[in-house]
Amino acid sequence: MSVAMIASAADRRLLDESRGTRAMTWIMAIMLFLTVLAGALGLGTLSAAVLLDRQLAGRLTVQIVEAVEAKRTNQTALALAALRASPEVTRAVEVDHAKLAMLLRPWLGTDGADPDLPIPAMIDVDLGVASDAAVARVSAAVRVAAPSARIDRHESWMSPVRDFMAMVTWLAAALVLLMAAATAAVVILAARAGLETHRDTIEVLHMLGSTDVQVARLFQRRIAIDTLLGGVIGTVIAIGVIALVGLQLAALGSDLLAGLSLGARDWMILGGLPVAFAVLATLAARQAVLTALGRYL
């Protein structure tokens, strides 16, 4: 199917396009504005989820929960030796006691720096292979060396956050599909309304030898131009809003929120939405007009 995007002066007069921008353009601008925002939310959340998975994969925290300081220190040294001797472990570093006290200060106040307070020793561990079997072997080795050790897998306690991000991503994708369906419905209604408005003109065209396909091409061309123009307007405004939100997120300085960023591929997808919606509107308009002409005229 070949569709010319620029209507001739006669076509514009025939379809009353000289009256200025129609409501269809602004409807499409609003719909593309919402669609681009939903798409940016989904793509940004997906990027953050991928970054989170990459950061947490194979990461463990070993806590040596022992009240007696001498035993705690001894078990910490044994646990470190066992971890560094394990082939699955690529990094094992004890967290500085002063740093732990600083992290506990919002809850314990100045008491967090009390040397008599039995703060558990903590060891950050990175595994080369983030498999359940590797985690089980490392955990077993640590518990043999330090019976009071507790092993926390980062993926387990961050799984609710990961599940929430996945839900937001799927919700954003559903919103984009819903907006696409709504766009097709609006286009079909606009095409049918245009047929009723120009019914007499279309009958004259038929008597002059015009086919249904030629008449449909007039409507689909008009709707494609309106959709593309409105889509570009809505997309430009949405991109401005996304850029503003991105600046606000960057100012917060949060490591988790910093992952809510868009890459070059994401921007290309968002930039292609107006064209995709224009093609969708063109096809919907063509089908609606041909169906209506075949039924009523």
Automatic annotation (TrEMBL):
Pfam families given in the database record: FtsX
Keyword Acetylation tagged: no
Membrane topology: Multi-pass membrane protein
Cellular localisation: Cell membrane
An annotated GO BP: cell division
Domain ABC3 transporter permease C-terminal positions: 175-287
Record flagged with keyword tRNA processing: no
InterPro entries according to UniProt: ABC3_permease_C, FtsX
Keywords: Cell cycle, Cell division, Cell membrane, Membrane, Transmembrane, Transmembrane helix
Transmembrane segments: 164-191, 227-247, 267-285
Protein's name in the database: Cell division protein
Species name: Sphingomonas psychrolutea
